[in-house]
Design goal:
The complex is a heterotrimer of chains A (about 180), B (about 325) and C (about 500).
Chain A: H1 2-33, H2 36-40, H3 52-81, H4 85-90, H5 102-125, H6 127-147, H7 150-175
Helix pairs in contact in A: 1-3, 5-6, 6-7
Chain B: H1 2-23, E1 32-36, H2 43-53, E2 63-67, H3 74-82, E3 89-93, H4 95-103, E4 113-129, H5 137-146, E5 152-155, H6 161-173, E6 178-181, H7 185-194, E7 199-203, H8 208-212, E8 216-221, E9 246-254, H9 259-274, H10 276-284, H11 294-314
Parallel strand pairs in B: 1-2, 1-3, 5-6, 5-7
Antiparallel strand pairs in B: 3-9, 4-7, 4-8, 4-9
Helix pairs in contact in B: 4-11
Chain C: H1 2-15, H2 17-35, H3 41-52, H4 57-82, H5 93-140, H6 144-160, H7 166-181, E1 183-184, E2 191-192, H8 206-223, H9 245-250, H10 252-267, H11 273-286, H12 299-323, H13 329-340, H14 347-352, H15 354-379, H16 390-409, H17 412-430, H18 436-458, H19 464-467, H20 470-503
Antiparallel strand pairs in C: 1-2
Helix pairs in contact in C: 1-15, 2-4, 2-15, 3-4, 3-13, 4-5, 4-12, 4-13, 4-15, 5-10, 5-12, 5-15, 6-11, 6-18, 6-20, 7-18, 8-16, 8-17, 10-11, 10-12, 11-12, 16-17
Classes of the chains: A mainly alpha (about 180), B alpha/beta (about 325), C mainly alpha (about 500).
């Protein structure tokens, strides 16, 4: 499976990179084009204007992104046409790693999501309870995955998270006067 | 007859004293935050930190300085405007907040702020490079009248105080400068010292030392009177030109702080600003402290807002949605 | 005469136990605060400033200088151990420092950083003492066209400074450039890429970006595997690893190059340490014989930027002491603190108060020494952080990222920006794209744009202004040379062997 999945991964990666670059460039271009203040500044006076360099950079980004996307697509077509080992050997070894498991992305997304919620909870409950409410479940869950002992994970999780949050609270809010 | 009366009244008084804290608003009872919209180290920040340092004479609680920076000072102003209006969050502002409120639809409108106490003005001086060969204001204006745009002036980006000051100079004397924007005062001073620009209108403490060392030349102080740092530099008025350009510092509150607390704060800060040791420390670093009470502060802000609006409107910098 | 009064000020302070104690306290606090993500040197100074109010002026200067110098080193501790830069100046240190720590060489990396930091700091101080007025005049010949040229040179070098393909590195750098443009345009105050939101009006700050891109992304990468027995960071070798003094000495060239770049870039007003370290790292990669080792834990990648970082302190103090203009945000705070104590750094200080000048220099020197000593003492304990079970460390770092991003400007917008770049960093990792160019683009982009446009205004719209600047032209020539190096190098090798062959017959 891994040896067969080897080439498509490189092709997919190229396409994803291209899409990322193009996506960035397009979002940026839309933003510039929708700002009359920026568009009107082009070609005015001595200052080349606040829109010139963004447009140049975005243009380069779009071109580069499109080329990489095309390269990926071409590789993909090549692969599907004759997915033999001959092509695999001629292409440089870009993909050494097999793609990470889907649950890794789930973990990452879940952590990002909870951290994004954190500021809202802070405004609602205050820093300490909010940090606690984010840290405890995570520590319990990760501890459980480690040891597979639920009771121990809960106990340790609560203990460690309260220590962690307390020290953060003491350092940043009590000592450093951060207005959280 | 008299004795029991006295006892009764004194017990009443005593009990009143005991219960007073429970009944009346016991403000302030926790540290008060002063929000500075600029980074640490600048004049605004120094003024706030000096106030915090000398607060113990007039305040029962500490003052804590917070720097909430970004977006040409409007992030800090918004931070104050959005804070709970309990009187524990106070902001420092100057010309930048007025300018932002007309240029940036996302900035806080002046109506959402309540002026508290005017701290003092920060007058600008006109400085030219040593090799510009201009000795006084008359020569400076002559140069400009002969060849409009021949003087390259360093200033903030539009909306900053030194930009507004330069525009005021242009309007007042009907001349034209070539205005080159820099990011803040320090880069402007170095551009002046390196000779990249020929002149600049900046707060005096930034220029006094270089003037004394002969690295640049101060032509005139744009204020009513001379500055203690540069007693030998005449004002514009002394040279026959009625030109005043000053930035200012003032304290303000979010919109609807209870009147009682507002008055108390105004009183306490006014007292702090009058404090002799504070005034001495402030004059050491070149800050002018000329406190004004609440109502005068509000009037001053209105007047300055009109002035700045006119300048911005004339330069086409007012946002379409914010025109008066 | 200057040396004499410098020595007497030095001895005076060293002999006063109270002053020494205070200085040691300052250095310790500086290292700790510098190591905390979200507390930059600027903030460390601002936080401890009130403590110094009650001190004598010369003790206060000593204390604040110790905090300043120590916090600059402190930033590299968290960069190396947990891949979050403690201060903006440490953003480059982690590119090779953290891989070293991961390979079990955390202690070595920390010591290398500390020694390089001391050497760089001493170098910067030496330049400050010896050549301040001279260097100040040279630095003053850097105007907008020269700045633009520096930025071009930096960008050219950085194009090669990332592992992986150059084109992709450049495109990621372009994203960084765009991110640097978010917020108000520096010259006209027109909002760009703000999508009419308040969140983006403040722009993208370097620290939240780096905390997200390097710190949070690292957490996201390792979160899933945290239950496995092997910890994310191997600690086996940290305890008994031999510190190779010789290995360090061999890098003296890197240290010297880093110090030179740091001191000089620092001396240019408004350039600052982030630019200095970026250029120091980039030239190290570009002109290295083993560029492929960078990013995998190359010692040069730790030593050169750390030396540049510390030597830029001396550099930034040159315009402050001679011209009264702060070189960057950190010196602005230092200058503010001196002002509060009634001292106005600037041209008049030399004339009126020469002994204050020498006590500032002496204080700086003591700060370097104490940072070295306290840093070495702490070294025993620091790698223990890596012994914390990885899942606890990861969640702790995640929370620290949020708090640190907020603390830098007290702004919630920065937290969301940090989270965005955390996600982006994870995505870049999945796509095998380098993330360092993004940070470099953010540093150099605004420098390039602002100065390029300002040069054009100053030159009345004509590019001739660059032709009239010898410094700018030589920097452009260097940039072209760096670009053409891969083409020239084989030619040079052939030429050399030809010459050798020619010699043989004769």
């Amino acid at each position: 499976m891994t040896t067969l999945a080897f080439r498509p991964v490189a092709a997919w990666r190229d396409m994803a990179c291209g899409t990322l670059f193009c996506g960035f460039a397009l979002v940026g271009l839309v933003s510039v084009a929708n700002s009359p203040a920026l568009m009107n500044s082009l070609g005015q006076g001595l200052d080349p204007g606040p829109a010139l360099l963004p447009l140049v950079t975005l243009g380069l980004l779009l071109t580069g992104g499109t080329l990489i996307l095309a390269k990926g697509a071409w590789r993909w077509v090549q692969h599907t046409r004759n997915h033999g080992p001959t092509i695999a050997s001629t292409l440089p070894a870009v993909a050494e790693r097999s793609p990470p498991a889907i649950s890794q992305h789930l973990h990452a997304a879940a952590l990002l999501g909870t951290l994004a919620l954190l500021p809202n909870i802070v405004q609602w409950l205050g820093f300490f309870p909010a940090a606690l409410s984010v840290a405890t479940p995570w520590l319990v869950w990760l501890g459980y995955r480690r040891t597979r002992r639920f009771a121990q994970a809960v106990l340790l999780g609560c203990l460690i998270s309260s220590l962690l949050c307390l020290s953060l609270y003491l350092i940043f809010i009590t000592l450093l006067d951060v207005p959280l | 007859m008299k004795a029991p009366h006295l006892i009764i009244s004194s017990t009443l008084l005593l009990s009143l004293l005991w219960t007073a804290p429970l009944l009346a608003d016991d403000f302030p009872e926790k540290p008060i935050n002063i929000v500075v919209p600029w980074p640490t180290g600048g004049a605004y920040d120094l003024a706030a930190r000096l106030m915090a340092e000398h607060a113990s004479h007039t305040f029962s609680v500490p003052l804590v300085v917070q720097n909430v920076t970004g977006a040409a000072g409007s992030t800090g102003v918004r931070h104050v405007a959005d804070a709970t209006a309990d009187g524990y969050t106070i902001g420092v502002m100057g010309t930048h907040a007025i300018a932002q409120s007309y240029m940036n639809p996302n900035a806080t409108a002046l109506d959402d702020l309540t002026p508290l106490v005017f701290i003092g003005p920060e007058p600008a001086a006109l400085a030219v490079t040593q090799d510009a060969d201009i000795d006084d204001v008359a020569a400076y204006l002559d140069t400009l009248n002969e060849a409009p745009g021949s003087v390259i002036n360093g200033n903030d980006s539009p909306g900053g105080f030194s930009y507004i000051a330069a525009t005021m100079l242009e309007n007042q004397f009907d001349v034209e400068l070539t205005k080159i924007p820099y990011q803040g005062y320090a880069p402007t001073v170095s551009a002046l010292l390196s000779g990249e620009v020929m002149s600049a209108l900046l707060p005096i403490p930034l220029l006094a030392d270089q003037h004394a060392a002969g690295q640049l030349r101060l032509l005139g102080v744009a204020a009513q009177e001379r500055h203690p740092f540069t007693p030998e530099v005449p004002t514009f008025q002394e040279q026959g030109y009625d030109f005043i350009a000053e930035d200012f510092f003032m304290l303000y509150l979010p919109g609807d702080v209870p009147e009682e607390r507002r008055n108390k704060l105004a009183e306490m800060f006014y007292a702090l600003l009058q404090d002799a040791s504070f005034q001495e420390a402030a004059s050491d670093i070149g800050l002018m402290i000329q406190p004004r009470p609440q109502d005068e502060t509000a009037r001053y802000l209105e007047q300055r807002a009109d002035e700045v609006y006119d300048i911005l409107a004339a330069s086409g910098l007012v946002d379409d949605s914010l025109t008066r | 005469m200057l040396i004499e009064s410098f020595m007497s000020a030095l001895i005076e302070t060293l002999l006063s136990p109270w002053g020494l104690l205070l200085a040691a306290l300052g250095a310790l606090l500086g290292i700790i605060l510098g190591a905390l993500p979200g507390v930059s040197s600027t903030m460390a100074l601002a936080i401890l400033l009130p403590l110094s109010f009650s001190m004598d002026a010369h003790l206060a200067i000593l204390f604040l200088l110790c905090v300043f110098v120590a916090s600059v080193y402190g930033g590299s501790i968290s960069a190396i151990l947990i891949n979050i830069p403690g201060t903006p100046g440490a953003i480059v240190t982690q590119l090779d420092g953290h891989p070293m720590a991961k390979a079990g060489k955390a202690r070595e990396a920390l010591v290398y950083a500390l020694v390089a930091s001391t050497v760089g700091g001493a170098f910067g101080l030496g330049l400050l003492v010896m050549t301040a007025p001279l260097l100040a005049t040279v630095a003053m010949s850097f105007r907008s066209p020269e700045f633009a040229a520096v930025a071009v040179f930096g960008l050219v070098l950085l194009a090669y400074a990332s592992p992986g393909t150059t084109v992709r590195g450049l495109l990621v750098g372009a994203i960084g450039l765009i991110c640097g443009m978010v917020g108000f345009d520096t010259l006209t105050d027109v909002p760009r890429f703000t999508f009419d939101t308040r969140t983006l009006q403040g722009g993208v700050e370097l620290v939240p970006l780096c905390v997200g891109l390097f710190g949070l992304a690292e957490v996201l990468k390792h979160l899933h595997a945290s239950h496995q027995a092997a910890p994310a960071v191997s600690i086996q070798a940290t305890q008994r690893s031999q510190l190779k003094v010789r290995a360090l000495l061999k890098r003296w060239k890197s240290m010297l190059r880093g110090s030179l770049i740091g001191a000089f870039v620092g001396a240019i007003p408004a350039a600052g340490s982030a630019i200095a370290v970026a250029i120091a790292y980039a030239q190290e990669v570009r002109f290295s014989k083993h560029p492929e080792q960078f990013g995998q834990g190359a010692v040069e990648g730790v030593v050169a930027p750390e030396a540049a970082n510390s030597s830029s302190i001396g550099g930034t103090m040159i315009p402050m002491m001679t011209l009264g203009v702060p070189g960057d945000a950190i010196t602005a705070v230092l200058m503010g603190s001196l002002l509060i104590h009634g001292l106005r750094p600037g041209p008049m200080l030399f004339a009126e108060n020469p002994h204050i000048v020498s006590s500032i220099y002496a204080g700086f020197f003591i700060a370097l020494l104490l940072t070295l000593i306290i840093g070495l003492l702490l070294m025993r304990w620091l790698p223990l952080i890596l012994r914390i079970p990885s899942h606890v460390l990861l969640i702790g770092i995640a929370l620290l990222c949020v708090v640190g991003a907020y603390a830098i400007r007290n702004s919630m917008a920065d937290v969301y920006i940090m989270l965005f770049f955390g996600a982006l960093g994870y995505l870049l990792h999945l796509l095998s794209l380098p993330s360092a160019p993004l940070a470099f683009g953010l540093i150099l982009g605004p420098l390039l744009e602002e100065n390029l446009r300002r040069s054009l205004i100053l030159g009345r719209g004509s590019w001739d202004i660059f032709l009239h600047s010898p410094i700018a032209m030589s920097l452009f020539a260097l940039s072209i040379f760096a670009t053409a190096l891969p083409l020239l190098a084989p030619l040079w090798v052939r030429l050399k062997s030809d010459l050798q062959r020619m010699k043989v017959p004769f």
